[in-house]
Amino acid sequence: LVGHSAGAIVATTAASLLMQQSTSKQIIRGLVLLAPGFLNQKPAFFSYRWIRPLIRKMSRLMAGQLASTFQALHSKPVPDHIFKSFVAARTAEHFDLAIEKTLLAQEQPYIEVLTQEFPIGKVPIHMIWADGDKVNPYAA
Q1: What residue ranges in 10-56 does DSSP mark as E strands?
Q2: Which residues are bridge partners to 33 per DSSP?
Q3: What is the C-alpha to C-alpha distance for residues 14 and 125, in angstroms, rounded to an integer?
Q4: How far apart are CA 102 and CA 68, in angstroms?
Q5: For 69-113, how does the pLDDT look when each residue is reduced to its tens digit (9 = 90+)?
Q6: How far is CA 65 from CA 71, 80, 90, 123, in A?
Q7: Cα 77 to chain centroid, rounded
Q8: Cα gap 86→135, rounded to integer Å
Q9: How confident is the model over 5-47, as pLDDT tens digits?
């Protein structure tokens, strides 16, 4: 099963559920996670009340600058159809609120969830990052 970025969470969750529901534990042979997102715990200051107005402002700024930021993070021009699909989300109602809620969410670090669901030896996991990834760099 393959997952990319935040989709790595979806892939590992799906694999876990399939393995729990299957009579054959070999239904999932392994996981390939491409630049898996959310491996590190968020800094504690994200949970402080005084930071919320700043997060709200930052979320609105991020939503407004999504198009230019997306292009700037890629060394080669992004094909127009991919670019349009990616930035279309920013026109959705409450898009900035979704970014804000994502930044403020408190959850167990994904790496802990991953190691609990897939102890060493249970399912092979291969993680891949690109050299110089500016969006989701390797989390050491």
Answers
A1: 31-34
A2: 3, 127
A3: 14
A4: 21
A5: 777 777 778 788 877 877 777 777 887 788 777 777 666 667 777
A6: 10, 17, 9, 40
A7: 23
A8: 14
A9: 778 878 888 888 888 787 765 678 888 988 887 666 666 676 7
Q: How far apart are CA 4 and CA 128, in angstroms?
A: 9
Q: Are 117 and 22 contacting, i.e. CB atoms less than 8 angstroms apart?
A: no
Element (H, E) at 54: helix 52-64
Res. 140: pLDDT tops 70: no
Q: Does an H or E element contain 96, and which?
A: helix 95-104
Pairing of strands 31-34, 2-4: parallel
Strands 125-128, 31-34: pairing is: parallel
Tokens 């070999």 sit on residue? 26
Report the distance separating Cα 100 and Cα 54, nearest Å.
10
